[in-house]
Amino acid sequence: MIAKKNSKKIVKYKKYIGINIGTLLFGIVFVYMMVCIVMYLTSTHIAPYEVKKGSLSGNYKYTALALKSETVVEAPESGAVTYYAREGTEIGKNGVICSINENGTTRTERTSASSQTTESASLTESTELSESTTESSAETETTAESTDEKEDALQTTDTSESGTLSAADAKKLCAAAAGYASAFSGQNFQKAYDMKADVESAVLDLYTEDVYGNADEGSLFNVCRTDGPGIVVYSVDGFEDVKAEDVTTDMFSMKAYHKENLRLNGTAKSGDPLYKLVTEDNWSLILPIDNKIVSELTDQSSVTIRFLKDGTTADATVSVVQNKNTYFAKLDMDHSVVRFASDRFLDIELLLNKKSGLKIPKTAIEQRNFYIIPQEYVISNNDDSNEVTVLVETYTNSGKSEQKYKTTTVYEKVDDNYYVDINEFSEGDYIVRKNSSNKYRIEETASLQGVYNINKGYAVFREVTVIAENEEYCIVADDDTFGLAQYDHIALDADTVSDDQLL
Q: Most buried residue, 7, 8, 424, 502, by CB count within 10 Å?
């Protein structure tokens, strides 16, 4: 039997490479993102800054040298000194300041010895009472009550002699500690000793302020009275006779400064400084200044200052004193001396006149050079005041002259001169005056301060006029025709951008 022929025929189709449109689009987007990331990481970033109106107070902090009318009173004889007047208080003529005991003991020591004698007598009396065993119980109770009364009286005496810390005293101690903490510097340890002396003086006031009031005249030895009124100070530092014309920069070195607290000595020899009186309300503050501050103070007769010690402000008459090659500001006042009678150096702040305008960071400012073109050689653009047109004359290689109009940006106009971009012209180019054969050769340059305006997506240099500045910011005029306006955006750092750079 003949086998049946297989009629099925297998046909192979040509295979096509399949392309997924989604994968293709994702790949394109991925490549684009990678390119953008690489460009972002390798490019220089321009940080924007929005221009706003503001002001600078022109504040300057200084350490000033205080010069007062001071009289140092010397001890008339040797001995132990007991002070009665509180430092920094005003005292009249014939006021009692202190007393001197030639025997070498102060009133505090005598009071302490008296207390010890009273206590010893009381203990002896108590011992005798305890040894008496033959008296009746009623007599014993009466004696015990008497003993308790004596002990209570002794405790009361100790409390009155030790003194109490009032609210005013606590405030004074806290002020001394706060002033030291705010001005602490590891490089100037002298202030630690000054603070120690101030606190010890305040503590001494607690023990001596009532001594004179509770003592009779006969108990005081060699009383020292004032010859005239003044403010009491118990320290000397060698600056008592210094005048404004004698001040030098070396005097402001705190390392060489030393103040002696007289109350800590306890005793005095004949001729030693005993105390000091500030005899007048008129006093001066001297501070070294640079040429910039000299120019600011030249036209001023008075200034406002802030005392950093207590935050108060005061007005002072100002004058400039020149000693050799150094300028000093002399601030004269007829008030507030009682608050700072014991201070030789004061941290103050000069509050000069405020300047207002557009406030921008100093990092945004850059100096650029520009060509100067006289006004008679330009054609003004009525549609845009920031642009002018000039007729430029050039020469071909064959020596033939050609003239063509060129529009350029104006960055500033000073008197009858326009400042134009130095990159749009070549040195030696000529511009022709309209309807005339007169020519002007471009070669004179001048520099301008300005910032880069980035409002339009590319950097445009804009001239600014600085009217005030400090360490970080400056105030520029807001009425410049070719300058900035409020809410403009500028490059924060001028070193990171160039003119016409796309952002």
A: 424
